[in-house]
Amino acid sequence: MARNDGGMDCDAQTCADGGHDRAEAGNFPSVDPLLFAMLQLPDAVALFKPHIDCTGALTDLEWLLANPVAERLLGVAPLTGRRLRGGGTDAACPGLFAALADALHGPVERTVAARRGTTPVRWRVAAGPVPGGLCAILTDLGPENPSVAEALAESLTAALEHSAESFALFDHADRLVHANSRLKRDLPALADRLVPGVPFEELARGFASSDPRLTTDEERAAWMTARLERHRRLEPPVVVPLPDGRWLLSREHAVPGGVLVHYTDVTTLKLNEERLRIRETEARAARAEAENASRAKSAFLAQMSHELRTPLNAVLGFSEMLLTEPFGPLGNPRYRSYATDIRDAGTHLLALIDDILELSRLDSGGMAMAEEGVDLDTLSLRVVTALNEVAAEGDVRMRREVPADLPLLQGDAQALTQMLTNLLSNAVTHTRPGGEVVLTVHLMPDGGLGLMVADTGVGIPTADLPRILHPFDPSDSTIARNSRGTGLGLPIVKRLVEMHGGRLELTSQPGVGTAVVLIFPAERSLPRDRCRPAPLPPVILPS
């Protein structure tokens, strides 16, 4: 053996000159009676001499002395003169060399795993330096009986290992304590670095270096700064994109003695979210296209209606002149009958054009709505009075139940008059002789106002109810077959009530009758002492 600077023997087998080991037992101090007494102890006692290479690194330990208990414990006899590692004498306890190597620098006492045949056991190693080497006492503690804390830690480690999510535990110095295998699969670029003791910053730097989206040093440095800051602050969860297209939800929790970093694969959720976003974008585009088509249709209908009004006014004017005979008699009575038919047909066509124009204005948002207090008691009385003559001609009774002390309804008086006129006119038109039409207005429990027009008319089949509220959607109901109306009254009323923030509810039963309810929200109810009722427009009955 050569001598190194620290006085230890240098292992010539590992030196560059290729010489032979010249270590001799005489280099170790003589054994006194006290040492021999120690060798008689019931525990395994041994003296070791270190072997150092030319670089100063420990290569092995040589057994100088070992009592019989040590030889039985190691299962090797004799031990004296053998190497711990080179001689294979540590086969029963692979961790023994590391414990004894630490003892060269100071006293060590620790528990290491070993085997007694095929049975796992634990050894307690108590060792410390002595002149020229070290002394060690080995005690067989028997089969492993882990403490409750150790058993719990082992159970938790196994649970994390079988978890479908990724975990990494860092200590108070931000060094890795444990990472489950799922994390190594989720972050394959860091798999080789996920070993206990590696700093969090080194792992973060490795991730930044392996991310192909970070192409410059400045980008990687900025990413590192943001990641370390988020780790330090334990900020709320954040979704992290991976280079391979996957997404991980990263959460960090403070735990006793460190930080737990928790990753969940949310790739499926992100893909579903992206698909939903695309569908929403497509739906918005389709809705915008439908709205554009509806506006174009309304504009076309409005234009055509205006174009039809001019010749229609001439037809109505000349038919009226024929009936009044200002330039002399027509002669044959059939001419007068024909002129009457021309006037009635033109009047009906004019009503249809007016309804189409009204729908066009409502659909395009071109109708401005006034905000004024409307007295429903007064308004309903005026409309019912205007329709009394028409109802009497058809032998239909009209009844009105409207409390005089109701709140005023904030809305457009012209629109409210049109709604009520359309509903009552429809009800009278489609009620058989001897039937009844009832108008009621009530204060709703939430403070809103509910207006109902009910009749005992022919009724509407349930299948036709949705189509009744859509313009230009022909229905095969009894109403559609027997009515000369335009069929646009209810669609117009529906749009007008929705302009007021309310809704229309329609119920009907063939042979029993129909009820239409208009419900206005509570914010449109005005106390009578807050404002004066607005003046009401004239009631114009449908042709």
Give descriptors for this structure.
543 residues; alpha+beta; five-stranded antiparallel β-sheet; rod-shaped; disordered N terminus
How many E-type strands?
20
Shape: rod-shaped
Widest sheet, order of strands: 4-3-7-6-5
- Low-confidence sequence ranges: 1-8, 12-29, 476-484
Give the SSE layout.
Layout: E1 2-3, E2 9-10, H1 33-38, E3 44-52, E4 58-66, H2 68-74, H3 96-103, E5 108-116, E6 119-130, E7 133-143, H4 148-161, E8 166-171, E9 176-179, H5 181-186, H6 200-210, H7 217-233, E10 238-241, E11 247-255, E12 258-265, H8 267-324, H9 333-364, E13 372-374, H10 376-393, E14 397-401, E15 408-411, H11 413-429, E16 436-443, E17 449-455, H12 465-468, H13 478-482, H14 489-499, E18 503-509, E19 513-520, E20 525-526
Parallel strand pairs: 14-16
Antiparallel strand pairs: 1-2, 3-4, 3-7, 5-6, 6-7, 8-9, 8-12, 10-11, 11-12, 13-15, 15-20, 16-17, 17-19, 18-19
Helix pairs in contact: 6-7, 8-9, 9-14, 10-11, 11-14
Question: In a few lines, what is going on in this structure?
Answer:
This protein has 543 residues and is an alpha+beta fold.
Question: What do you see in this structure?
Answer:
- The chain is an alpha+beta fold and 543 residues long.
- The chain is 39% helix and 24% strand.
- α6 packs antiparallel against α7, α9 runs parallel beside α14 and α11 runs antiparallel to α14.
- The chain is rod-shaped, with a radius of gyration of 50 Å.
- The chain starts with a strand and ends in a 17-residue tail after the last strand.
